[in-house]
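Chapter review: from sequence to fold.
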Amino acid sequence: AKVYFFPNERPSLLGLEKATQQAGKLGFKSEPQQISEKIYRWDNGQTPTTTLEININNNSFHQLYDYTNDQEAIDSKDLPTNQQAAQEAKNFLSSNGFLESDLATGSADFVYLKYSPPDLNTVSSLSEANFIRVNLFRADLDELRILPPNPKKSLVSFLFSGIKTLGRRIIEVNYNYYLIDRETYSTYPLKSVQSAWQEFQQNQGFISNLGENENGNIIIRKVSLVYYDADEPQNFLQPIYVFEGDHDFIGFLPAIDSKWME
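The token string follows.
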């Protein structure tokens, strides 16, 4: 399988300046507050407030509207349909210069959420929900899926309310995206599926989602090859094996033959 290069930006003296410009495009004009060495926070100065946190090293960001102090936003049932929510999410990314081609053509899934203070809990239908979350995934690469650390939640996601007022419609945005250099890659041999299965049984893998398997009895139904899209900057997009089982169990294991790994 191919291993692709990630041309990640490195920390620079211009990181804060670029982040400030990015915040301005998103409507935040205030002076930022430094949260950590790489995270800066802006707010819109309104009540309820909307905050924006940007990682100045890689431009990933998190935007959040304080819906807990907006009962109308919680109670409104005029939620967008799945198709509407996906399109509105992509429109937001496009208008702000964040809609890369593999997000534009990738898949989306949807989670219906009910607010039960202080938590958002999953419900089965849109009619029960206070909010709808849209998870945007990259398009397949070499006919393989590209999955984040938790395939149940993408690295680019939106939370929508039923309010159509600007600033209250989009409750939350998570944007954690790294550009893949599709022209720079090398091909490496893979472990056999049997070898991967033996390693996974020996606890050499990673449990991405335990699901409802607290008793420890895991039944695996499917093994597939995918690409792993990390939530932290990495140098390479690598193939992994995914083990999927009953009750939403998901586990990962590196797929490159160990003899070729440093």
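Two observations follow directly from the output. The first strand starts at residue 2 and ends at 5. The chain has a mean pLDDT of 94.
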